[in-house]
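The following block was generated as part of the benchmark described in Methods. Ligand: TZD.
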Amino acid sequence: MSNDAQSRELTDGFHLVIDALKLNGIKNIYGLPGIPVTDLTRMMQAEGLRVISFRHEANAGNAAAIAGFMNGAEGVPGICLTVSAPGFLNGLVALANATTNCWPMILISGSSEREIVDLQQGDYEEMDQLAIAKPLCKAAFRVLNAEDIGVGIARAIRAAVSGRPGGVYLDLPAKLFSQAMDAAAGQASLIKVVDPVPRQIPGADAVKRALDLLKGAKKPLILLGKGAAYAQADADLKALVEKTGIPYLPMSMAKGILPDNHAQSAAAARSYVLPEADVVLLIGARLNWLLSHGKGKTWGGKDHKDWGKQKFIQIDISPTEADSNVAIDAPLVGDVGSCVSALLAGIGSNWAKPPAEWTNAINERKTKNVAKMAETLAKDPVPMNFHSALNVVRDIVKANPDAMLVNEGANALDFTRSIVDMYKPRKRLDVGTWGVMGIGMGFAVAAAVESGQPVIAIEGDSAFGFSGMEVETICRYNLPVCVVIMNNNGVYRGTDVNPTGGADVAPTVFVKGARYDKLMEAFGGVGVNATTPAELRKAMEEAIKSRKPTLINAVIDETAGTESGRITSLNPASVATKKH
Ligand code: ADP
Ligand code: TZD
Ligand code: MG
């Protein structure tokens, strides 16, 4: 046998990892090269995977996490690839955040030699990564032998996308990559995961219990969460809402499952419907802090610990989610698609619509609030404020309903969420369950790569700073991303002063009049400084049309924001009487 023929019959860890990922429908890798994965990234590219290289692993990780949100229901988790110790640690925030948000991603990190790590002999980038990752994700695996790569990747994929989705860590020690094995045996060792997102069908008794409760409701309400968006059961969700005639509220990333201008949306009457509703059907939404834990004044309770009078039906894939905050009267455990179609089957065609008293009362509040908002949006103050700038964004998104919207910040987040309507499912990507800053450019890159659609990223100036260097990545891959920075000179606003009168500015304040647009220009993208709504509109329209990487520095009144946006009350207050 010639040397050539012999080498063709051998495969190695590098190629088995790539083959296993490809076999399971992975197309995009978000990562950052270095020892021991540099050649892996090269070979991935050579083998037809799209490798998106970032400037910091946190952003690669966030990209993978949101790719998981976008595609997880189809059995494809997002993949982040990093080097050992520091690169791995940089990726961990995103892995933990993905797990918290129930998004499937796999963090694959190269690691140092086990023998040296375990004896703590001081290897290059030494760290027991598996042990550190474990508490921060849904599952963690390590592969030591090339013949186990197929199993390792299959297990990682199943753990990420089945049941309640989440983050998975996969540890690949450097030695694994150059381990050789017979090519045919290697091929045979790979596993194509069958039915990665198995349907989970709710019990008939649980469905009946839920329907009975819903039937008796005088003031029913449906609450759609990002688990509902994730599940890609859009048609059934729309049918459920429309056939029952029940008003609904979308959580932030559930906006657009039904268009925000839908007649049954109660979003503009949120503070009325939550305390008033008698039966609430939660679909892929947890009663966590974002819903005031299902109790307290938001829900009509007398004080912050009091339960309201609502009864809850909760659709969730996790059987342990029910009762985590308040009693769930009718838990419906299963995937959103199966649960909603079971409800639809039970609802039939002559379901009695909710009493007109309830829907009329909601509509009355809605009309009033929408009119009030329209008035505010129509104002044209100088300098611009969040409302006048976001009025433009609202129009642009309406005209481009397929565009992806990324959003982070405090005021920049809260105002965008309430002002900018979404028209299609899974278009709004934001800070999620943790309210984490830094997701912006990672999400924007993945949103563009995964969807091929233009991306609009509405960023607080502070929020943008966490991932701002990735504008180079956006330019490098020539992605159709339009970043709009709501530049109010700081965290929440730019007006705080140093109480000592010292030279340092206050902790929340940035350089005044900063020109973020020049950052984009530095890498060949389009930078625009916009001081009026008209300038902002023109720049956004051009960005969408040209699909050129664009960064618009929208100059916002530095007094416009409030502390922590809408969650001011979560700040602890000092009770010290001593003067410090
Ligand atoms: P939001 O922040 O929008 O309120 P959460 O992240 O709190 O949403 O809740 C999402 C919920 O959806 C989680 O409890 C998760 O278990 C659930 N979930 C995720 N995917 C599915 C699915 N396919 N079917 C049913 N429930 C799901
Ligand atoms: N660090 C991380 C990782 N996440 C966070 N949420 C914070 C810090 C705290 N934080 C917020 O919750 S919002 C925010 C920070 C630093 C920035 C707000 O300023 P901004 O938005 O410029 O992005 P506005 O429009 O000025 O409010
Ligand atoms: Mg700001």
